[in-house]
UniProtKB/TrEMBL annotation:
Residues 26-225 form the Fumarylacetoacetase-like C-terminal domain. InterPro entries: Fumarylacetoacetase-like_C (IPR011234), Fumarylacetoacetase_C_sf (IPR036663). It comes from Roseibium limicola. This is Fumarylacetoacetate hydrolase family protein. GO terms for molecular function: acetylpyruvate hydrolase activity; metal ion binding. Keywords: Hydrolase, Metal-binding. It comes from the Bacteria. PANTHER family: ACYLPYRUVASE (PTHR11820), FLUTATHIONE S-TRANSFERASE (PTHR11820:SF90). It holds the Pfam family FAA_hydrolase. The keyword Amino-acid biosynthesis does not apply.
Length: 226
């Protein structure tokens, strides 16, 4: 018997399925589009990838993003979310996509000022990345509905103005490569989620802003900053 009430397992709604996808872990790759790496002051060469983590309950499908405390510079980062139905260790690149359940549009909201301080001090990024409701997410689209999107426009408008735009084929590390690489260091499992990086154009949002994520083949994800 638990000595406290069991925490609720975070779940994502699946489009047209009437079911939910329970989330186990959230891995996020950094600087996975060359233009974004450049705008953040880094070389876009194909160095080994690096990852940080958000918390499963950071994923939020409410359509609202409450502006967080302790920050005056919160940035948007539009991303593709990859949801795994199975996992393992040392997964070959050639079979990595067999472990994917589906995909969703997502935002990696970032307290950029706090992340910048952490970078300068050589500290982890979680204070800038893993705060409450920091990953607004659209409905999951199963692979049998959407396939494995490896190209197509990914963009973000804020108040009707285009802020970010790229193509998923511009990822430095492709989805199957991210899965394989992560499995060399972690035992992946059903319920794991990967955020696959953002194109260039990241920037600040303010209370009252309306963000709209557009990814080819996905329903728009509209999020209001409150």
């Amino acid at each position: 018997m638990n000595v406290i009430e069991s925490p609720k397992i975070p779940e994502l709604n699946v489009i047209d399925e009437g079911g939910t996808f329970p989330v186990r872990r959230v891995y996020c790759i950094g600087r996975n589009y060359a233009a974004h790496a450049i705008e953040m002051g880094h070389d876009p060469d194909r160095d080994p990838p690096f990852f940080f983590q958000k918390n499963p309950d950071n994923l939020d499908q409410s359509g609202e993003f409450p502006y967080p405390e302790k920050s005056e510079d919160v940035h948007h980062e539009v991303e593709l979310l990859v949801a795994l139905k199975s996992g393992g260790t040392n997964i070959p690149v050639e079979s990595a996509l067999d472990h994917v359940y589906g995909y969703a549009a997502c935002l990696d909201m970032t307290r950029r000022d706090l992340q910048g301080i952490a970078k300068k001090m050589g500290r982890p990024w979680e204070i800038g990345k893993a705060f409450e409701r920091s990953a607004p997410t659209g409905p999951l689209l199963p692979v049998d509905k959407i396939g494995h999107p490896d190209h197509g426009r990914i963009a973000l408008n804020v108040n009707g103005e285009l802020r970010q735009e790229g193509d998923m084929n511009q990822m430095i590390w492709k989805v199957q490569e991210m899965i394989s690489y992560l499995s060399d260091y972690f035992e992946l499992a059903a319920g794991d989620v990967i955020l696959s990086g953002t194109p260039s154009g990241v920037g600040p949002v303010s209370r009252g802003d309306k963000m709209e994520v557009q990814i080819d083949g996905f329903p728009p994800l509209v999020v209001n900053v409150t």
